[in-house]
Design goal:
With 225 residues, this protein is mainly beta. The protein has one helix at residues 2-24; strands spanning 27-34, 48-53, 58-60, 68-74, 80-86, 102-105, 109-111, 127-134, 143-149, 160-165, 168-172, 176-183, 186-193, 199-204, 209-210, 220-224. 10% of the residues lie in helices and 41% in strands. Bound molecules: 2-acetamido-2-deoxy-beta-D-glucopyranose (3 copies). One 2-acetamido-2-deoxy-beta-D-glucopyranose is lined by residues 75-76, 79-80, 103. The chain crosses the membrane at residues 7-29.
């Protein structure tokens, strides 16, 4: 009796485990950042990069009026990825507007798009190499990363993330700089006045928290390396 119960329990665990593995396979469109317009891998990664989940409705943007919602679809053989854009108020991605569709070819190099623009940090001018990956792991090890989730533990598949490679510096306004880097697994943002080298720690490791930019109360962000 007892043994049977244990076997039954173990079978259920196995079935759940198998189902989880099957369900967890998820595709992302990756945009890996490079400084040069040929996205030369040998020259190393630099600037702002992204990854976006395929086939789900998600929002991108900082403040309510300029949020857009997106669903990404893939071409045959994952040869391209189309970002279908929906209005800010359309959280369910119900009313497509094809004139705003943007398609990226896998393996091509583009000007980095401005999906990470939160009005405070204008994108630095880099390029991105687009690729389509199953359960991606190719983000550079040293990068300050912002990840968007829909669960309050930040434990499910992320909707999307953007990252800055080590030592990315933003210059905004006349006199203000932000510098992002990771050191020994901890993400840092330094705020600098006057010059990019005279900085104080402004913001370190932000744990999983409700969207601080408050455009959607069910969105959570994690800052990490
Ligand atoms: C994307 O790929 C599909 C084939 O898989 C093709 O029919 C379509 O025209 C491509 N879209 C663009 C914009 O290149
Ligand atoms: C990243 O930058 C920080 C600060 O500049 C430095 O301490 C760290 O060693 C760098 N990591 C790598 C892998 O270059
Ligand atoms: C660094 O900046 C502060 C003001 O933000 C200034 O008081 C200080 O003199 C600066 N130090 C150097 C070495 O420039």
């Amino acid at each position: 009796m007892k043994i049977e119960k244990i076997i039954c329990f173990l079978s259920i665990i196995l079935i759940i485990g198998y189902a989880t593995i099957v369900v967890e396979s998820v595709y992302y469109v990756e945009m890996t950042p490079y400084a040069d317009d040929a996205c030369t891998v040998e020259k190393g990664e630099s600037g702002v990069g992204y990854a976006f989940v395929v086939g789900e409705c998600f929002g991108v943007g900082s403040f309510a009026p300029i949020v857009n919602n997106y669903i990404i679809t893939l071409g045959d053989n994952n040869n391209n990825a189309t970002f279908h854009q929906y209005q800010s108020s359309d959280n369910a991605c119900s009313q497509a507007n094809p004139i705003y569709d943007v398609t990226y070819q896998s393996g091509s190099c583009y000007n980095a798009p401005e999906y990470a623009d939160n009005n405070m940090y204008p994108n630095i001018y880099n390029y991105v190499l687009v690729s389509i990956k199953e359960n991606p792991t190719s983000m550079p090890q040293y990068a300050y990363k912002f990840t968007q989730y829909i669960d309050s533990n930040c434990a499910t598949n992320p909707q999307w993330y953007f990252f800055y490679t080590n030592d990315t510096v933003f210059h905004y306004g006349n006199n203000d700089f932000s510098k992002f880097y990771c050191d020994e697994g901890e993400p840092y943002e330094l705020y600098c006045e006057g010059s990019a080298t005279n900085c104080t720690v402004n913001d370190q490791s932000r744990p999983c928290s409700r969207n601080v930019w408050a455009w959607h109360e069910h969105i959570y962000f994690l800052a990490s390396c």
